[in-house]
């Protein structure tokens, strides 16, 4: 989402931290699946991509935050890959279910044969050497059913838990899409605000430069004042070029996350809101997160799946009972035929597979221990996500208030310095310093406002309520 040029952007590190928080656990979601299922789980990079759809409109389109998120839910690559994971888990569940059900096959066979007895070494006087052609018709249905197979039952239960985990992960992926798209949208809004701020600073610097040129030409100010004002003006012009470039690149990144054609021009209709966030009960918020987080629920289902796989490894020692039978109609043809059939029951008991059975059980137990450790860590991570988001909100809220006051003071100081210079009381060094203070204060204000809104978006994600993001961006 970010290039090397954007690393100096004050929003870069905040955005990276947000994305790491949101998608770090995604690749582990389907780890508990059967080894023969190839994993294509979404990664952090997946949520930065999409499947582009639609044609490029000739006019500039308006894009609200709601529109962007809905596009992302339809086209974001992470959401799509989560859907394919669910389909794969559904297929695995059906495959495991078939092992518990009877298999019925039907076969229709029409045979025609002719035999050369002489070629077989049979030469019987008075007996024809060529027999045939002759043939028969065989219509037959067969049944195969594992009546007692505890291992297959456990594997089916594990597949069912994996399917439930995949469904929960797919729902969680939608929360991650909201987080990713919301962050990208807020980042573009912050870029637009920064561009507007730098444009205003350029205009102010131009006024100061014109004033310095006029004073120098009138002989009331030294050449140094003009040079200083020109350097400040050109420096701000460079900052404006960088800011505009960053804006365009982040708009491309936003288009990538929502499947919008990259050549499509668009304007953002929503603006970065600021609303004081009411204090909430931390313990109640943590309880809400544990109840609503779909990634945590998915890991619980995965743990149950691995528990069933561990039981399946133990069930390998148990006997299995299998029935095989068939019934059909066989004869020279259908009109001259007779029914035949057979049935058999098989009891299989492993007698000497001790090392294989022990190894299978140890592997399954290690996977279960690993999964339980990850589940414990996930529970702690949910607590940490909520606490981190609340701390970030409180910190960013104070930063916004201080930065807003700093902007007002810096603008007042700049106005005072310009008036003093215009009156000839001082040189324009104070004006240059005041302009730098205004630029710094504006950057801090835009960055703190962005951090505040991203922190609230992160809290919605941490609580498992990312799709109700409006309740958080506008306060609570």
Model description:
The chain is of the alpha+beta class and 476 residues long. It folds into 2 domains: 385 residues, Outer membrane efflux proteins (OEP); 79 residues, Outer membrane efflux proteins (OEP) (Single Sheet), CATH 2.20.200. The protein is 61% helix and 14% strand. It has 10 helices and 6 strands. The strands form 2 sheets. It has a 4-stranded antiparallel β-sheet with strand order 2-3-5-6, with no helix packed on it. Strands 1-4 form a two-stranded parallel sheet. A hairpin with a 2-residue loop joins β5 and β6. α3 runs antiparallel to α4, α4 packs antiparallel against α7 and α6 crosses α8. The two termini are 30 Å apart. The N terminus is likely disordered.
Average pLDDT score: 85
Radius of gyration: 36 Å
What is the element string, with H for helices and E for strands? HEHHEEHHEHHEEHHH
CATH top level of the largest domain is: Mainly Alpha
Sheet with the most strands: spatial strand order = 2-3-5-6
Question: Could you say what the CATH architecture of the largest domain is?
Answer: Up-down Bundle
Shape: elongated
CATH topology of the largest domain: Outer membrane efflux proteins (OEP)
Give the strand tally.
6
Low-confidence region ranges: 1-8, 15-38
Share of helix, binned: 55-70%
Overall SS class? alpha+beta
CATH superfamily membership of the largest domain: Outer membrane efflux proteins (OEP)
Count, helices: 10
**Biggest sheet: strands, sense, closure?**
4 strands, antiparallel
- Total domain count: 2
* End-to-end CA span: 30 Å
